[in-house]
């Protein structure tokens, strides 16, 4: 497959997508849109053009594929323009900022259908795939509690770059844990179709990090999940402060427990009597490669369903619900 490629944004995730695309397809021309029109810090074997405005790039070129890796508030407006032009879109998370944007995206995609992929990579890990199989195969009984958590130290995310200036630390650019660490909400929807009912939220801006948006969120709720009438006690913990990174999911049922450690890449199964560990090791870039291949296959077969959009909108709905319930504390 030969592709003329548009990339909006040129941070670490954009560079990863470009490098992975190079492994899977023949790039004939790369066009990058970034705030500065300065030359890129990576050399490529194909022609590269840099613009500082998306409309300028779209006026000068046609494209086979586009990656929207810009700050979160720009995702929906840029996607609307790309849908209109019939360009397949890979959209980094979160999909949008409001339900109004969500409905506009669905309407635009209905009138201008294109292949779409949303950048929630955890759904493409071996751990997630094995976990989903085990949830279907094992008898955990009635699930009574789901605990999901992630903690990562923000200054470690982008070594060599001041974290204070990155999008994750700036509310105006879509920062804060609810949006930047929304992978947990995405996989809870993917695994359980989770819907939060009685919700309590504590969002905190701890002063140990220089940022104007929440760097910790604790969410407690009673939730409904697919395939079960009984409600589930649910705890979601998100933070940008933990010096030792963690990412775990614990599913507790009346007949057993299942624990996914996404960093150790293990699944622990306990049936009330004994436990066993299933290893789901893979090289860290493999989920991104897998996700890219799925997107390219969708383009090759021109699969224009709106499932990815609806998943992203479901995540945004949860984020908005949580924000409406929160008590925010500035430490």
UniProtKB/TrEMBL annotation:
<dbReference type="InterPro" id="IPR055170">
    <property type="entry name" value="GFO_IDH_MocA-like_dom"/>
</dbReference>
<dbReference type="Pfam" id="PF22725">
    <property type="entry name" value="GFO_IDH_MocA_C3"/>
</dbReference>
<dbReference type="Pfam" id="PF01408">
    <property type="entry name" value="GFO_IDH_MocA"/>
</dbReference>
<keyword id="KW-0732">Signal</keyword>
<feature type="domain" description="GFO/IDH/MocA-like oxidoreductase">
    <location>
        <begin position="128"/>
        <end position="258"/>
    </location>
</feature>
<dbReference type="InterPro" id="IPR000683">
    <property type="entry name" value="Gfo/Idh/MocA-like_OxRdtase_N"/>
</dbReference>
<dbReference type="GO" id="GO:0000166">
    <property type="term" value="F:nucleotide binding"/>
</dbReference>
<protein>
    <submittedName>
        <fullName>Uncharacterized protein</fullName>
    </submittedName>
</protein>
<dbReference type="InterPro" id="IPR051450">
    <property type="entry name" value="Gfo/Idh/MocA_Oxidoreductases"/>
</dbReference>
<dbReference type="InterPro" id="IPR036291">
    <property type="entry name" value="NAD(P)-bd_dom_sf"/>
</dbReference>
<feature type="domain" description="Gfo/Idh/MocA-like oxidoreductase N-terminal">
    <location>
        <begin position="3"/>
        <end position="120"/>
    </location>
</feature>
């Amino acid at each position: 497959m030969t592709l003329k490629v548009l990339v909006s944004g040129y941070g670490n995730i954009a560079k990863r997508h470009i490098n992975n695309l190079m492994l899977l397809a023949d790039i004939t021309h790369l066009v990058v849109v970034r705030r500065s029109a300065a030359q890129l810090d990576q050399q490529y074997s194909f022609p590269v053009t840099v613009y500082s405005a998306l409309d300028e790039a779209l006026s000068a070129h046609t494209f086979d594929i586009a990656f929207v890796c810009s700050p979160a508030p720009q995702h929906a407006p840029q996607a609307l323009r790309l849908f209109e032009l019939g360009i397949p879109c890979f959209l980094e998370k979160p999909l949008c900022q409001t339900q109004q944007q969500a409905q506009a995206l669905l309407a635009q995609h209905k009138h201008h259908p294109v292949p779409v992929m949303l950048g929630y990579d955890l759904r493409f890990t071996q751990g997630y795939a094995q976990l989903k199989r085990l949830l279907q195969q094992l008898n955990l009984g009635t699930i009574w509690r789901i605990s999901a958590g992630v903690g990562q130290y923000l200054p470690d995310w982008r070594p060599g770059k001041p974290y204070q200036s990155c999008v994750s630390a700036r509310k105006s650019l879509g920062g804060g844990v609810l949006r930047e660490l929304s992978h947990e909400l995405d996989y809870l929807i993917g695994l359980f179709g989770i819907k939060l009912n009685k919700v309590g939220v504590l969002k905190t801006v701890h002063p140990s990090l220089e940022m104007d948006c929440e760097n910790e969120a604790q969410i407690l709720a009673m939730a409904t999940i697919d395939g079960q009438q009984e409600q589930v006690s649910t705890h979601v913990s998100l933070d940008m402060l933990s010096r030792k990174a963690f990412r775990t999911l614990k599913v507790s049922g009346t007949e057993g427990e299942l624990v996914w450690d996404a960093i150790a890449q293990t699944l622990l199964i306990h049936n009330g009597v004994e436990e066993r560990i299933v290893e789901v090791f893979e090289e860290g870039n493999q989920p991104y490669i897998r996700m890219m291949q799925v997107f390219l296959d969708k383009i090759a077969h021109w699969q224009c369903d709106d499932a990815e959009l609806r998943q992203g909108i479901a995540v945004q709905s949860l984020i908005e619900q949580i924000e409406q319930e929160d008590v925010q504390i500035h430490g």
